[in-house]
Design a protein that fits this description.
Layout (H helix, E strand, L loop, with lengths): L7 H13 L21 E3 L9 H5 L5 E6 L7 E7 L8 H4 L8 E3 L14 E10 L6 E4 H11 L7 H11 L24 H10 L2
Antiparallel strand pairs: 1-4, 2-3, 3-5, 5-6
The protein binds iron/sulfur cluster (2 copies).
Amino acid sequence: MKLPLPKIRELIEAIKALIKGPYTSKFPKEPHVAHRNFRGQPKYNAEKCVGCLACEMVCPVGAIAHRDDIVQNGMSKRTMIHYTDTCIFCGECEANCIADREGIKLSNDWELSFFDRKQAFETIEKELQLCEVCGGIVACKDHLKWVSEKIGELTYSSPTLYLSRLRELGVVDENLVAPFKDCGRSDRVKILCAQCRRQTTMTAQ
Ligand code: SF4
Ligand code: SF4
């Protein structure tokens, strides 16, 4: 019986493999470097992320969550959590990131093995701005800064935005206390959540 001759393409591949070596990597003996276009797990960039939660809203599998820790008269923070065992690497978080798609980005990190599933997450922290009347959450400080930069001089139409900026620049004292407590009118020039802004605007005399 006559053996079938190898196809030309297979012959070329065999010659290439003889010259270049095998296509497969020697992992785990040698570290494996993924292809530059490999879609690996997303990574947060704590410098660029503004803590807006858009990525959490668009994630189709709930691989992103957040936790807010409120400390009155201390540093309140938002923790962004990415669950690496739930992520499907779809890239929706990166595509919808308001920080020019830099707050979270797909990486070529493919190594996802772990012994304890409870440890399969990564986090970053962002400082929160609290309402100076009710103590509720306004937004992350970096998010307020991001809005100010987007709208430019219109920032001066919102005391919350311009006071945030002035405090960041050190122009306004953090501990400045309004001289008339519960007057209402003086509360207007404070960093406020949407509800308190509405109340001081609609009801203060
Ligand atoms: S890549 Fe997709 S699944 Fe993973 S965190 Fe981003 S949006 Fe969620
Ligand atoms: S800035 Fe980007 S990465 Fe950060 S919370 Fe918003 S959407 Fe997510």
